[in-house]
Amino acid sequence: MSMRVKWLESVTRRNILRSFSSFLAGSPLLLHAQQDLLRLQDTKRVLGIDEMVSSFDFEAVFRGNVSRAVSNYTAMGVDSEFTLRRNREAFDWVQMISERKGDILSVNTSSQFLGKLLEYPILVAPTSGHQLLHPGGEKASYRGATAAKTPFIVSNVSSQPIEEISKAANGPLWFQFYPKQDMDLSRRTLERAQTAGCECIVVTIDQQASNFTRALHDRNLGAGRGRDYTRIRRRRTPLKNPYRVRDSRLWYEWGYLDQIHPFIKVPLLAKGVLSAEDALRCLNYGLDGIIVSNHGGRSVDYAPSSLEVLSEIVDAVDGRMPVLIDSGFRRGSDVLKALALGADAVCLGRVPRWGLGSYGAQGVQRAIEIIQAELVQSMANLGKMDLPALDRSVLRMDFP
Question: What pTM did the predictor assign?
Answer without folding.
Answer: 0.85
